[in-house]
């Protein structure tokens, strides 16, 4: 049994000297992050398709069972809304090819303006995708969560393509008003998504947003401990990404989440051991 956990990125300034050695060349940071977590969100590919050489360096720094959930470029999902995207999509697929099995799922994040009436466009897009990859879709229009017909429509299209529905759980974050600059910034930017805990495939993916306060983050993920433990007992292999507004402690929190699930499911494989980090010094 495997539960993969990770963060929204593999390097952050506040991690230097804590989770990642400092100083550390940029081409070594992913390798050090992979000692803490065995999955990562590929958010940077949303803004620009990387070169094959860059992607090859990501593969070289990680084991074959490390999981990248790689976001499709915004030109495909947001600007052209899944139509007339062959050139951009083929360029993206070619660029990520060096990841090999590490490309756990290609992440199709759709804008809040993508409504249930647009689902036929998604269905056509999914049917044209190569079967060499797994796909996972994140939607942000409220009707997909509150309108049963819209929910069933999307679930049917995803099931036909053996694609997963990625929930972004922000319920714990929006439970109480923000108390820090990072939380106030996230308050204006993060979507207020209803809770969804239903998996469509054997490899569910969850994005969870907590608070800057660790105790609130841990309290907010307790229902996910139950859900993920149940998925594992059913033979599923989930991936969970832990976010907080400042992400300062995200790698440690991801490992804590894994520890809490492992306490429920003792047969769960352990995470890798982190690469030791020497404390920062003034001289």
Short key terms for the protein model shown above:
11 helices; single chain; alpha/beta; DUF72; nine-stranded parallel sheet; globular; 9 strands
How is this structure best summarized?
The protein is α/β, with parallel strands linked by helices and 283 residues long.
What do these coordinates show?
This protein has a nine-stranded parallel β-sheet with strand order 6-5-4-3-2-1-9-8-7. Helix content is 36%, strand content 13%. It has 283 residues and is α/β, with parallel strands linked by helices. The chain starts with a strand and ends in a 19-residue tail after the last helix. Helix 5 runs parallel beside helix 7 and helix 10 (222-233) crosses helix 11 (250-264). Strand 7 (168-169), helix 8 (181-189) and strand 8 form a beta-alpha-beta unit. It has helices spanning 29-33, 52-60, 74-79, 86-96, 119-128, 143-146, 148-160, 181-189, 214-220, 222-233, 250-264, and strands spanning 4-7, 39-42, 67-71, 103-109, 135-138, 164-165, 168-169, 205-209, 239-243. The relative contact order is 0.17. It is built from eleven helices and nine strands. It folds into two domains: 1-10 and 167-269, no CATH class; 38-164, Protein of unknown function UPF0759 (TIM Barrel), CATH 3.20.20.
Spatial ordering of strands, largest sheet: 6-5-4-3-2-1-9-8-7
* Whole-number tally of structural domains: 2
What is the residue-averaged pLDDT? 96
Per CATH, which architecture of the largest domain? Alpha-Beta Barrel
**How much strand?**
5-15%
Which fold name fills CATH's third level, the topology of the largest domain? TIM Barrel
| SSE-based structural type | alpha/beta
Helix content: 25-40%
Distance N to C terminus: 45 Å
């Amino acid at each position: 049994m495997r539960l993969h956990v990770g963060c929204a990125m593999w390097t952050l300034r506040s991690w230097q000297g804590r989770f990642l050695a400092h100083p550390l060349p940029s081409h070594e940071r992913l390798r050090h992050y992979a000692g803490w977590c065995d999955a990562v969100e590929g958010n940077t590919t949303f803004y620009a398709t990387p070169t094959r050489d860059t992607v090859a360096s990501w593969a070289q720094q990680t084991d074959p069972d490390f999981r990248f959930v790689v976001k499709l470029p915004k030109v495909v999902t947001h600007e052209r809304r899944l139509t007339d995207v062959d050139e951009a999509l083929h360029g993206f697929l070619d660029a990520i090819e060096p990841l090999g099995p590490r490309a756990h799922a290609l992440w199709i994040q759709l804008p809040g303006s993508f409504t249930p009436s647009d689902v036929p466009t998604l269905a056509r897009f999914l049917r044209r995708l190569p079967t060499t990859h797994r796909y996972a879709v994140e939607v942000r229009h409220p009707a997909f969560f509150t309108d049963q017909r819209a929910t069933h429509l999307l679930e049917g299209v995803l099931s036909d393509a053996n694609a997963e529905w990625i929930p972004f759980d922000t319920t714990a974050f929006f439970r109480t008003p923000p108390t820090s600059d990072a939380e106030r910034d996230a308050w204006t930017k993060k979507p207020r998504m209803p809770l969804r805990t239903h998996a469509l495939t054997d490899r569910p993916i969850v994005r969870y947003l907590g608070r800057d306060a660790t105790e609130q983050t841990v309290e907010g993920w307790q229902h996910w401990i139950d859900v993920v433990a149940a998925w594992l007992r059913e033979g599923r292999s989930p991936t969970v990404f832990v976010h907080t507004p400042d992400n300062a402690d995200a790698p440690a929190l991801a490992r804590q989440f894994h520890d809490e699930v492992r306490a429920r499911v003792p047969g769960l494989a352990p995470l890798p051991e982190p690469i030791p980090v020497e404390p920062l010094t003034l001289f």
